[in-house]
From TrEMBL:
It comes from Paeniglutamicibacter psychrophenolicus. InterPro entries: AAA+_ATPase, ABC_transporter-like_ATP-bd, ABC_transporter-like_CS, ABC_transpr_TagH-like, Bact_Polysacc_Export_ATP-bd, P-loop_NTPase. PANTHER family: TEICHOIC ACIDS EXPORT ATP-BINDING PROTEIN TAGH. Keywords: ATP-binding, Nucleotide-binding, Transport. This is Teichoic acid transport system ATP-binding protein. One of its GO terms (molecular function) is ATP binding. SMART domains: AAA. It comes from the Bacteria. Residues 72-287 form the ABC transporter domain. Belongs to the ABC transporter superfamily. Pfam families: ABC_tran.
Length: 287
């Protein structure tokens, strides 16, 4: 059984000489809701534990999310016009090593919010997320620069993933090949079609072996053929002892790639089980 540790420990272990199994987040609410008890399978290695997770957004009624300036205004006189969106409502589950978990649900059901909270990008209102290592969202988009060539962007993306120059030089041919951009790799990325950029981003991000990887559908774009190859790559990452979450509206992708599915509707966990059972139940409900 692995020791579950907090993000703080992962970020700077030297600051945490003594191991204290703190949750990634633990924000007690004034009136805690009844906690669902989590059943752990003792025979397998848990890598992510989501315990009674609630996520809320504060939004202006204009639809804008409340940023730093908005939060300041919240402290001032009128708070009218601010609405709360309760995007994830008491979700609990345990993900184990080597699982490939599909995350499905209607538009706006809370899938991306749940994934962002697992990676630590979004703070929960209540509940906890525990992880054995830092979960990574597949994507290096933010690190890339459109005016630079695909090749230079491989270097940038690789550095963003933590590789050194020599390692990137050894990988660049494989990445270029996987992205099918051999003839275009010296051209600026802004001249690429959206499919070509998506392929390059996927190829760079997937070059790293992630222990816990989250793939949001929006990133797994490209044409049908590339989609098949990216699915195969996802399976390969999984086989190398990784755990993968795949958010998708394509039930075929989910059935081809995942051995377990979590179905969320309006922020509530509807079903968690083997892919076919959950996808069938979801399809039946959607009819
Ligand atoms: N940054 C944000 N600020 C305010 N509300 C948000 C924010 N992000 C998401 N929401 C709201 O939270 C709810 C869940 O959204 P989320 O994006 O997690 O759903 P989703 O299941 O991923 O949707 P889709 O399938 O359409 O991508 C929605 O009501 C959405 O409007």
């Amino acid at each position: 059984m692995v020791e579950l540790t907090s993000f703080d420990d992962l970020i700077n272990p030297r600051l945490h000489g003594k191991f204290e199994p703190e949750p990634v987040y633990d924000v007690p609410s004034e009136a805690p809701s009844e906690k669902a008890s989590i059943a752990l399978d003792e025979t397998r290695t848990p890598v992510v534990i989501v315990d009674n997770l609630h996520v809320k957004y504060q939004v202006y009624s204009s639809g804008k999310s409340v940023g730093a300036a908005g939060a300041k205004r919240l402290l001032q006189s009128s708070t009218r016009g601010i609405r709360e969106v309760h995007a994830v409502k008491g979700v609990s589950f345990v993900a184990y090593e080597n699982e490939s978990i599909g995350v499905i649900g209607s538009n706006g059901s809370g899938k991306s919010t749940l994934m962002r909270t697992i990676t630590g990008l979004t703070t929960p209102a209540e509940g906890s997320v525990y992880a054995s290592s830092r979960p990574n969202m597949l994507g290096v988009g933010a690190a890339l620069i459109p005016d630079l060539s695909g090749d230079k962007n491989i270097m940038l993306g690789g550095l963003a993933l933590g590789y050194n120059r020599q390692e990137i030089n050894e990988m660049r041919e494989d990445i270029t090949k996987f992205a099918e951009l051999e003839e275009f790799i010296d051209l600026p990325m802004r001249t690429y079609s959206s499919g070509m950029s998506a392929r390059l981003k996927f190829a760079i991000a997937a070059s790293k072996q992630h222990d816990i990887l989250i793939v949001d559908e929006a990133l797994a774009v490209g044409d049908a053929r590339f989609r098949k190859r990216s699915e195969a790559k996802i399976r390969e990452i999984r086989e190398n002892a990784g755990t993968i979450f795949l958010v998708s509206h394509s039930m075929n992708s989910i059935l081809d790639t995942c051995n377990r599915v979590i179905w969320i509707e309006k922020g509530v966990l509807m079903m968690d089980g083997d892919s076919k059972t959950v996808v069938d139940a979801y399809k039946a409900k959607k009819k």
